[in-house]
């Protein structure tokens, strides 16, 4: 994506550019074009804001923003599908929405019964209770490390932001799981598909 000529930003008093990473700011090789880099630099010099928005965990959003040169004053990251906002000028989370970990236990237990991989996140990466090929594949693609724990509810220091249940081979199993768990989390958690193989909460 071409985010626009630098002059566009200079003519407007103050703007905020929200951009996704994969398939938007980044090309298929996960690189950012020289033209977009120059336009972003022009925007920041003009006092505008750049916000990276992603469903990725915060640790991944921060790492990717830093690698793109988007980790200084005027830059922000929205991670976990909007559950967390990070201000790079303050080096801290300035907004967050989490959910009670009792529902984490429900989703994990039901996913295990269904034979589906399930994971959540801590400050430094992925947390799961079982190691499998889905977890390894996800970790490799996102470049986020993982840790296997006995109980995710006790391993977390705070309530979670997000859960993913996944199946890389049969999306119908995820549809069935979504229907199965809906009555157990009604009014507490929402679920949606970010792609065919990721059911997110």
UniProtKB/TrEMBL annotation:
Molecular functions per Gene Ontology: magnesium ion binding; phosphatase activity
UniProt-listed Pfam families: Hydrolase_3
GO cellular component terms attached to this protein's record: cytosol
InterPro entries membership: HAD-like_sf, HAD-SF_hydro_IIB, HAD_sf
NCBIfam families: HAD-SF-IIB
Protein name: Hydrolase M6_Spy0533
Protein's organism: Blautia hydrogenotrophica (strain DSM 10507 / JCM 14656 / S5a33) (Ruminococcus hydrogenotrophicus)
């Amino acid at each position: 994506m071409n985010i626009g000529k630098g002059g566009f930003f200079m003519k407007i008093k103050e703007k905020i550019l929200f951009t996704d990473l994969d398939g938007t700011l980044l090309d298929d090789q996960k690189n950012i074009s020289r033209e977009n880099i120059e336009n972003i630099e022009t925007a920041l010099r003009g006092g505008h804001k750049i916000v990276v928005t992603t469903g990725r965990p915060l640790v991944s959003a921060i790492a990717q923003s830093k690698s793109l040169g988007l980790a200084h004053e005027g830059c922000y990251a929205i991670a976990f599908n909007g559950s967390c906002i990070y201000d790079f000028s303050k080096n801290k989370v300035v907004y967050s929405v989490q959910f009670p970990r009792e529902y984490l236990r429900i989703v994990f237990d039901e996913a295990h019964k269904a034979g589906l991989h399930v994971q959540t996140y801590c400050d430094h990466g992925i947390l799961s209770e079982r190691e499998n090929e889905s977890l390894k594949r996800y970790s490799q693609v996102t470049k986020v490390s993982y840790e296997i724990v006995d109980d995710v509810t006790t391993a977390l220091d705070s309530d979670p932001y997000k859960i993913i249940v996944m199946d890389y081979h049969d999306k119908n199993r995820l549809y069935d799981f979504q229907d199965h768990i809906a009555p157990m989390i009604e009014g507490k958690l929402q679920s949606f598909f970010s792609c065919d193989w990721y059911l997110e909460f």
